[in-house]
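Hi V.,

You were right to ask for the full record rather than a summary. Here it is.
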Amino acid sequence: MKAGDVIQIRQHEVLHDALPIAADPPIHKPGPIDFWLYARVLEVLPDGRVRVVVNHPGNRDHGAEQILAPMEDAGNGQPVINVRTKADLETLAGAAHHANPNWNAKLQQHYKTQAERLVSQE
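Predicted structure:
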């Protein structure tokens, strides 16, 4: 990953008494949810963090600059992924996500479409 690459960054939200989110698959109950926003890498800092500008029209963070670590510890020993590259999404597009073959195909296509929208400078 380097300056100019288009990546996805995690936007973690906690939904409280909100209406159910219209999504595929549907999100029925309030609680924590991650959205993935498109962003352009401005620079990779010496400590491995990345400075990005959010490029996701319609999102409240569109146009904002952020500095974030690609991964961090959730406090329970599990890593939290904050950044997804084109290669990450291509890996997700090839992985099995659901026992139902129809749902699995939809999920794989979902990741494939997202990967196609990312531009790598490599």
